[in-house]
Structure formats: structure tokens, C-alpha cells
Amino acid sequence: MRILVVEDDPDLNRQLADALKTAGYTVDSARDGEEGHFLGETEPYDAVVLDIGLPRMDGISVLEAWRRAGRNMPVLILTARDRWSDKVQGIDAGADDYVAKPFHIEEVLARIRALVRRAAGHATNEIECGPVRIDTKAGRVTVDGNPVKLTAHEYKVLEYLMHHRDRVVSRTELIEHLYDQDFDRDSNTIEVFVGRLRKKVAPDLIDTVRGLGYRIITPKAS
After folding, report:
1. For the chain: N or C, fewer Cβ within 10 A?
2. What angle do CA 45, 114, 102 make, to 5 degrees?
3. Are 215 and 167 in contact (CB under 8 A)?
4. pLDDT one-digit tens code per residue, 1-59
5. In contact, 164 and 156? CB cutoff 8 Å
6. Burial class (CB in 10 A: 0-12, 13-18, 19+), 19
């Protein structure tokens, strides 16, 4: 899952980015509204953390521009605690949730998890597909209740496919959502990760749809 952080305070920007990376997300950062607007308009993100008080282009204007352009990724806005009007403006502009400063990083992480989960149509942090269960809060994968050890990139591929199960996900989409903008992207690595997941998790979990990509199909209830 790929997250964009748009925050002009360098320390807070770094804290948010570090916490999100530790939680397993791929993170891009911007320090002003113009850069944030450009990234959000040109790169695919699973969620955005957006400060309201930004230089060069304020957060409300950034959000409104994204929504006018049809960019529908979930957006969590950061507001000043005593500015209730910012919260109202943000929600009216198309924000999905807000956190008031100062805040605990854990609250931001919990709200991001919820936004990503809801956007994919899931009600809880745990996603099941047959014997495979992934706990997105703990970053844990089990098969028939037994823990499976995955590398960070293997986990990211599985998590994205599980979030979007029952539809074909192209290699390009996986790459765009798993790697940040500066990463030297190679589509062949996705094939390697899928091969490893078939060996570690389940051989028939991930279908290859020739010429299109990969898909995890929810087993029909017996």
C-alpha cells in the first residue's frame, strides 16, 4: 500500500513517514501544497495524509483540485485543534477523515488502516481467503492458523492482492502501489514475489491471468 504525506513541518513529516514505513507502507512525502497536488494528481495512492496549512497551495485547495480531477483516494486531513472550521471545510472539500493537532502517531496509523480497509470494502483489519488470513494491523499472515514468515515485499504483494481480491491486478498496478516514486521499478520482481508466495502460502492462491496480471479468487462457500 502506497501513502502520500503532505506536511510542511519537516520533523512531523519525517515522523509520519517513518511510522508509516515501519507499519509496512510505501511512502512518498511532499513539503508544500504544489508538490503534494502534483504527486496526488499524477501518482496512484491508497491514501493521503494532508495538512491544511501548507505553503504555496493550502490543503483545502489541493483537496478540491484532486476531487475536481476525479482523484478519489481516501484523504485524512490534519487540522489545528481549535479550528473547527478547518474540519468542516475539509470534509466539505472531500476529506474522508481528520485528525486534530497535536495527535498521537498511533491514531493516524489507525485511521489510515480504516480508510484503506473501507476503500477496499473490508469491515475489519483481518482479511480471509480460504485458509489464508492476513491481519493488516499486526502485519501477520497465517495459513490454517499457522504463521507464515514473509519478507516485506512478499507481504506487500499479498496484502494488496487480498485487499483487491476477485479482480485482476496488473503488474503495473502492483508496482505503482508497492514502490515509491524514486524506486528503480522492475516488473520482473513481481513475478518473483508471486512465485515465492505460492510456495510459502498456497500454490493455488494466486491465479495468473495471462497478459493481464494476477488475481486472488474468494472460494465459494460449500
Report:
1. C
2. 90
3. yes
4. 999 999 999 999 999 999 999 999 999 999 999 999 999 999 999 999 999 999 999 99
5. no
6. middle
Q: Does some domain include residue 108?
A: yes
DSSP 220: P
Q: Is 186 within the bounds of a domain?
A: yes
Selection from 32, 29, 33 nearest residue 5 by Cα: 29
Rounded average pLDDT over 63-87 = 90
User: What pTM was estimated for this model as a whole?
Assistant: 0.85
Asked if the structure places residue 163 within a domain, the reply is yes
Q: How far apart are CA 153 and CA 130, in angstroms?
A: 22
User: In which domain, by residue range, is 207 found?
Assistant: 126-216
> Tell me, what CATH number does 181's domain have?
1.10.10.10
For 211, residues 6+ apart whose C-beta sits below 8 A from its C-beta are none
Distance CA 165, CA 214 (A): 10
**Residue-wise burial string across 57-94, b where 16 or more C-beta atoms lie within 10 A, e elsewhere:** bbbbebbebbeeeebebbbbbbbeeeeeebbebbeebb
Alpha helix (H) ranges present in 1-79?
Answer: 10-22, 33-42, 59-68
